[in-house]
């Protein structure tokens, strides 16, 4: 596995790594600028399939982060890329918003409610019983079941709300069919991201804040993995899993140093210092 100073390309999660509740995290702007100035290929990854890369670029810019839209890779784009590789000019019935519908349109897919090749479930804030019922009937009729990401809940100002994984579970219960999930923790999302920037696993690093998506997918894709403690993970969460990232750091501000971290220096941080 490559050391940090041998990494030539970077993939990084967005929420909990670069931003938190629309506020840039310490060191995020500087790290992005460092990569830009040095010509280091990078992509910002997110399982959120609601927004287009243009939307997300604007939202990040409002947070003080300069990320061009071609440097953003969403689960919607990864899903469209995968389906295009499976069926050229296919058809799909979609539960989701502009992020997934735009990605599928640009991949050459036609949206239809009549005998589609795929039923695709993505993130939305407007799930309808009618659409879910139609998806169930189409899957029972032979359409293949795809989900952009497995997240069961998403954040809101009032607390957790049902997300893509919860709706997919409802459809699974009604049909007996499990979806193929393209987004994290499927390492396919990382491989498609690396293909976009011409990267190779042996010299690519992945920065994330979740053990169950970012880190496990990075490990399975053969990447150098770095867990930041600015998201949802703490020592208790980390200890639940039998695998470990290559590095654990307080936040992306620590990655501004050029000093590599030896594997035997990796350990848990004192949470009181974060």
Describe how the helices and strands are arranged.
Elements: E1 9-13, E2 19-20, E3 23-24, H1 28-38, E4 42-46, H2 53-62, E5 72-74, H3 75-86, E6 91-95, H4 98-106, E7 110-111, E8 118-121, H5 129-140, E9 144-147, E10 153-154, E11 161-162, H6 164-175, E12 180-181, H7 187-197, E13 204-208, H8 211-220, E14 224-228, H9 235-238, E15 247-249
Parallel strand pairs: 1-4, 1-13, 4-5, 6-7, 6-8, 8-9, 9-12, 13-14, 14-15
Antiparallel strand pairs: 2-3, 10-11
Description:
The protein is of the alpha/beta class. Helix 5 (129-140) links the parallel strand 8 (118-121) and strand 9 (144-147). The chain has helices spanning 28-38, 53-62, 75-86, 98-106, 129-140, 164-175, 187-197, 211-220, 235-238; strands spanning 9-13, 19-20, 23-24, 42-46, 72-74, 91-95, 110-111, 118-121, 144-147, 153-154, 161-162, 180-181, 204-208, 224-228, 247-249. Mean pLDDT is 91; it is low at 259-274. Keywords: Carbohydrate metabolism, Hydrolase, Magnesium, Metal-binding. GO terms for molecular function: metal ion binding; phosphatase activity. It holds the Pfam family Hydrolase_like. Its cofactor is Mg(2+).
Largest sheet: 6 strands, parallel
Helix content: 25-40%
Radius of gyration: 19 Å
For the residues shown, what is the average pLDDT? 91
SSE string, helices as H and strands as E: EEEHEHEHEHEEHEEEHEHEHEHE
Cofactor: Mg(2+)
Protein name: HAD family hydrolase
GO molecular function: metal ion binding; phosphatase activity
InterPro entries: HAD-like_sf, HAD-SF_hydro_IIA, HAD_sf
């Amino acid at each position: 596995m490559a050391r940090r100073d041998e990494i030539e390309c970077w993939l990084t999660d967005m929420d909990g790594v670069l931003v938190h509740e629309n506020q840039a995290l310490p060191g995020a702007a500087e790290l992005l600028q460092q990569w830009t100035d040095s010509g280091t290929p990078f992509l910002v990854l997110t399982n959120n399939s609601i927004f287009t890369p243009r939307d997300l670029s604007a939202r990040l810019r409002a947070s003080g982060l300069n990320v061009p839209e071609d440097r953003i890779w969403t689960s919607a784009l990864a899903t469209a890329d995968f389906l295009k590789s499976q069926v050229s000019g296919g058809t799909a019935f979609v539960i989701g918003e502009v992020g997934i519908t735009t990605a599928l349109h640009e991949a050459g897919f036609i949206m239809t409610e009549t005998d589609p090749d795929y039923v695709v479930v993505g993130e939305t804030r407007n799930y309808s019983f009618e659409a879910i019922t139609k998806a169930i009937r189409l899957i029972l009729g032979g359409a293949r079941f795809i989900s952009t990401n497995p997240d069961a809940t998403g954040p809101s100002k009032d607390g957790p709300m049902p997300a893509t994984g919860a709706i997919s579970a409802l459809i699974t219960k009604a049909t007996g069919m499990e979806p193929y999930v393209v987004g994290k923790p499927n390492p396919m999302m990382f491989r498609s991201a690396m293909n976009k920037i011409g990267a190779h696993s042996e010299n690519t690093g992945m920065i994330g804040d979740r053990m169950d998506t970012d880190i496990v997918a990075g490990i399975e894709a053969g990447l150098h993995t770095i867990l930041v403690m600015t998201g949802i993970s703490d020592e208790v969460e980390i200890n639940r899993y039998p695998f470990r990232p290559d590095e654990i750091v307080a936040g992306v501000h620590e990655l501004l140093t050029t000093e590599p971290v030896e594997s035997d220096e990796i350990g848990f941080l004192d949470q009181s210092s974060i």
